[in-house]
Every structure is written in C-alpha cells, then in structure tokens.
UniProtKB/TrEMBL annotation:
Keyword Metal-binding in annotation: yes
InterPro entries per UniProt: DNA_primase_Znf_CHC2, DnaG_primase, Znf_CHC2
Zinc finger CHC2-type domain boundaries: 30-84
Transmembrane segments: none
Pfam families linked to this entry: Toprim_2, Zn_ribbon_DnaG
SUPFAM superfamilies: DNA primase core, Zinc beta-ribbon
Protein name per Swiss-Prot or TrEMBL: Toprim domain-containing protein
Keywords, sorted A to Z: Metal-binding, Zinc, Zinc-finger
Organismal lineage: Bacteria, Pseudomonadati, Bacteroidota, Bacteroidia, Bacteroidales
The keyword Zinc-finger belongs to this UniProt entry's keyword annotation: yes
C-alpha cells in the first residue's frame, strides 16, 4: 500500500478497527479519548469531512499515516503495512465496539503473559508478573481487521477484558463482572482488574480472604447488585471521578452497609495510580480580579 491509497481509508474506520468508538459526535466532528495516551475526557477530534485528526491534549494532528505512526510508534513504511490490513469497505456503523459485538472475533491462543511488550506493561503498572499471571492471561485473537494480543482478565461469563499499551481498552464478549467467592459476608468492589491487582500488591498478598467483585466498568454496577446484596459489608475502591462516585451511591441506595475506601487514595484517579504515585491532574482555577 502506498501513501495515496492509505489516505483513502477513513480515520474513524481505522480507529473502530482498533476498538475505539467516539465518545460523542458533533456533525462531522467525532470526539474520542486519545488512542495513544490515557485520558478520561475525550479531547481527540476527527474531522470526517477532511479525514484529519487533532489531539487537543498534546497539540498534535495530521492525516491517517501520521496517526498510524503515532499509535504504532513506527516508521512510515511500517505504518503503511499496518494500514494495509484495514479493509476499505469496513462499515464504521456495524458495531459500537468491534471486539465486543463482532461475532467473527476469535480467540486463537490463551497463554501466560510472556510477550516483552506486555511484560513491560505489567511492570509499568507496578504489578509483579507472577501476581498478574495468577489472574490474567496473554490473549491472542483475530477479527476482520487482523491479529492482535493483549493482557486479558476473564469475567464470569467467559469473556475477557482487554488492555494493552499505550491505552487500549476493550473486551471480548460477553461483557460481565468478575467475582471471587470465598464464603465471606464482606465484599471488596473494584472498577477494573488493575485496581484489584493493586490492592493485592499494596496488601502484599496474592489472595484476599474477602469476597471480591470487579465491575470491569461502572456501567456493570447494576449487574453486580444481586451478588453484593448477599454480603453484610461492602468496601468500595472505585475511581475518584463522577462515574466512581455514582456507582458507590448506587450501591448505597440498596440499603447496604458501604464503606467508601476511595478516600484512602484521594488525589489519585484510581488505586493503580496511587500504587504508581501518579497523582491526578487538577484543573487550575483562574481567579479574576476587579476590572478597573
């Protein structure tokens, strides 16, 4: 594939093939959370008319080749090879999440985490590789866009939550919570598996004596309610953001005894950021004086 051919591929289709869906759509402008760095608020814009992108968080932008280079951290030649695997007739509106909804996604291999890039990703998360392999696997899968691999965390229905550097998050359906039942009347609640592994790391243990519910997304909070209602005490370690607070309030609304442990890592987005010492960036408040 040459550069001219690559530029005929829609950036929105390219992002969708990688598992990224827009957070909002405003006319021809599609807004995403950046595909190559972590962020909670979508500041990555794709102009579908011009087929260009601009990341307001970094000030970078360009065409699809520039984006493929940025995501792959690679040369133009490698970016063109990667783009050659994108099917030009791929329907962007086929699904909201290609990995979750596309029935042609096939798991080709499940193995202990061994790929150097994923080992480095686990280390970056400050999680011991042995601990990660007790709960996660290296998942190899393929769909109509190609073959991929990620760290995978199994849920209660046999699906896998996927995560790989720099900020890829998705799942292989079905989407569900993950529970660990130890016959206790107390339950720990985490939003994602990195937070669960962070808790174990901080406590210097490989297993907890409590029951555990990993939501795998605060959107799954309602799915966890029946399990949580079987416990006398609930300890929530959810994110210090609006979604985490709303999920905690939803659990409290079921008249459960809830202890909000997110206050223990105030100033950090989540428990893994606390483990890594990655403080939350706060918006600066601009104080205005009196006009003369």
């Amino acid at each position: 594939m040459n550069a001219a051919q690559a530029k005929t591929i829609k950036i929105a289709e390219y992002l969708q093939s990688l598992g990224y869906s827009p957070a909002k759509i405003q006319g021809c402008n599609y807004w995403y959370c950046s595909p190559y760095r972590e962020e909670r608020t979508a500041s990555f814009k794709v102009d579908t008319n011009k087929n260009t992108w601009h990341d307001f968080g970094t000030g970078e932008g360009g065409d699809i080749i520039d984006l493929a280079q940025k995501i792959g951290n690679c040369s133009v030649e490698t970016a063109l090879c990667n783009l050659a695997n994108i099917q030009p007739n791929f329907s962007f509106f086929q699904s909201k999440n290609i990995l979750q909804d596309n029935p042609t996604t096939i798991i080709t291999d499940i193995r202990p985490i061994a790929h150097p890039k994923l080992i480095e990703w686990v280390k970056e998360r400050r999680i011991d590789l042995h601990l990660a392999n007790l709960y996660c696997r290296e998942i190899h899968y393929q769909n109509q866009s190609g073959q991929f691999f990620s760290v995978g965390f199994r849920n209660d229905k046999g699906g896998y939550e996927l995560n790989s550097p720099p900020s890829f998050k998705s799942c292989i359906s079905p989407k569900e919570i993950t529970t660990f039942q130890n016959g206790k009347d107390s339950c720990l609640v985490f939003e994602g598996f990195w937070d669960f592994l962070s808790y174990l790391t901080i406590q210097k243990i490989e297993r907890t004596k409590h029951d555990v519910a990993v939501l795998n997304s605060t959107a799954n909070t309602e799915k966890a309610m029946n399990f949580l209602k079987t416990h006398r005490e609930i300890y929530t370690y959810l994110d210090n953001d609006d979604a985490g607070r709303k999920a905690t309030e939803l659990i409290k609304s079921a008249n459960l005894t809830v202890y909000n442990r997110s206050t223990q890592f105030a100033g950090y987005k989540d428990l893994n950021d606390y483990l890594r010492g990655k403080k939350q960036l706060l918006k600066k408040q601009v104080r205005k004086g009196f006009k003369l």
